[in-house]
Amino acid sequence: MATASATTKKKCEFWDKCYRKNKQHKEEFLHPSDVEETKKEVQPKPRLVHEISAVDDEDDLHPTSTLPKATTLAGSKRKTDGDKTSDSDIATSSSSSFIPPLKKVKFDNTDEEKISVDYNKKKANSNTNVQTTNSSDKGDASKAGADTTGTIATANTTQTIQYKSRKEKCKYWDKCYQTNQSHKDEFYHPGDDIPADFDDGKKTRGQTSTPLNALPDGGSVQFDSGYTLKREGDIYSCSCKGFLIQRAPINERTCKHLKEYLGEQFEKARVEKNTKPKKAHISSHINISLLLAHKYEEKTTDPRGWWISEKLDGVRAFWNGRCFYSRLGNAFYAPEWFTKDLPKDIHLDGELFGGRGQFQSTVSIVKTAESPKWKDIKYHVFDAPHMGKEVFEKRMNTIKEYFEENEPEYAVFVEQTKCKSKEHLEAKLTKVLNIGGEGLMIRQPKSIYEGTRSRTLLKIKKFYDAEAIVIAHERGKGVNQNRCGALRCRMACGKEFSVGSGMTDKNRNNPPKIGSIITYKFQELSKSGTPRFPTFVGVRLDKTEPEDAEIRPVLNEEDA
C-alpha cells in the first residue's frame, strides 16, 4: 500500500529540507520518509561489547565496565635464595597449587587498649523507638490500605471527559502560514466567526487547592483539538508536543492545555510543589593535601605505643561535608542516601571500601556517579583533617563520639589498637594477611595531622615475588621518551602484563633482552589473574623459564 501511494505522489521540490508538517502537504508530495518506509527492514540489534582493563595505578583511576569473575591461577612453588632444593624437588612441588597460610602467631589480646565505637550506648533507646515505630507503622499501614482500596475503586470507574477547548487568537494572526486542521481548531484566524463575548484575557480563578475542572485519578480528558489529558495519582500529562518535549521530570511539567482545564493558579502551585530544589553547585575538583605514609622499617622503628589499624585496599576519599574527593582532588559523586548520615561540619579522611580483594569493583563503583551499586561500599573513617593541630587520640575520640551518637548507615569507624611490642605487631599483620587483607597502618601517638608524607604514619605490606619472560619493550612517554617505558612480560601461566615501576635509568637505556627472565614483585593478583602494581626487581641469570608465585589462601577471621 505504501509503495503504490508513493509512486503516484509528486516529489517535493525541497525534498529533505522541507519544513511543512501538515497532512495535506504530505499526502500530495513525496518526501524521504515515504521512500524509507518502503525500504525499511527489521535489523537485529547489535550487541554492545565492552573492553575491560585492569587498573594499574590507584592515583589515576578510570571508570571500568563490569569486571569479570576472578580466575584461578595455579602457579608453581617458589624457591627462595636460601633453598637447597634439587630440580626434581622443584618439579614435584610445582604440581601442587596449595600453599599453607602464614603460621598463626598466638598473642593474648584480652587486655589490648583500643579506640573503638560502642554502638550499645543507644541500644536501649533504639529498642524503645523500634517498638513505638512498629505500632505506628501498623496504623499507617492500615490507613495506606484503606487509601489504596479507595484509589482502586476510583480507577475502576475511570472515564473519558469530552472537553471543548477554549480557542485563542493565533499570535501570528494574518501572517500565519499553517494550514493543518488541528491548528485551525485551536486558534482563531482572520475570517473566523469569533463570538461576541470572546475574552482573550485568559482569566482563571485564584484558588489553588482545587482544580478549575475535576479530573479523577485514572481518568482522561479528550480535547476537541485532538489532545488528551491524563491523570495517574498526582501525575498529570498531556499528549501535546509542548508537554512531551520538556526535559524536566514528568511531574514538574505543564502546558497550556493543563493550565486551561485545571486552571493556571492550580497548575502553578502543583508544579512548584513537585519541583525539587536544585542542588548547590559542587566543584568537580579542589586542592587538598592529605596525610601520606612512609614505609615501615623494622630496624629503625620501635612500634611500641603506636596505634595499629588494618590497611584497607580501597579508594582514598576526603569528605568535606558535601562531597567525596580523591587524594588528587577529583570529586566522587555518591548518592544522597549514602551521605545523609555523614557530618556537615566535620571533615573526614578515610577509604571507600568494597571488601578485601574487591579493589577493581570498588574503583568501578565510586567512579560512577549516583550508581545504585554504592550500597556495596562503606566509608571507613580513620582521621579528621580539620582538627589537624589536635593530637591523634583527640581527633579519633571526636569521630568516635559522632559515630556513637548518629550511627551512620554507610560509614565505619576504623578501630585503633595500641601496639605492645614487635611480636604483637607481627601477630596482627599475620592475622590480617591470612584473612585476605593488604597489610597494616601504624600511627605515632599524640601526632598531629600533616598534609604531606610523614614519618608519623607508616605502612606495612608484604609482597609476592615471581619470574616472568620478557616478550617486548614498550616505548616510553614524557621523560622516558625515546627509551624503554615498560617491559611486556609473560607469566608461566600464559598471562601477559607490563612492568615499568622499579626500572632505573640504566634499565631503561639498556632494557633486559627479549627472552630474558626477570624477577618482579607484586601486591596481589587482579581479578583477571595478572599481578597488581608489579615492580621490576632485576634480571635472573640463573633461570631459563618463568615461575609464578603461589598465592596464600584466605581464611576466616576465627581461623586466622
Explain what the structure shows:
By secondary structure, this protein is an alpha+beta fold. α8 (256-262) packs across α9 (264-274). Residues 1-7, 40-60, 62-98, 138-156 and 202-207 have low confidence and may be disordered. The chain is 24% helix and 21% strand. The protein contains 14 helices and 27 strands. The relative contact order is 0.12. The radius of gyration is 35 Å and the shape is elongated. A six-stranded mixed beta sheet has the order 3-18-11-19-20-10. It starts with a helix and ends in a 21-residue tail after the last strand. One of its GO terms (biological process) is DNA replication. Residues 29-105, 118-148, 191-217 are annotated as: Disordered. Pfam families: DNA_ligase_A_M (PF01068), DNA_ligase_OB_2 (PF14743), zf-CCHH (PF10283). Keywords: DNA damage, DNA repair, DNA replication, Ligase, Metal-binding, Zinc, Zinc-finger. Its cofactor is a divalent metal cation.
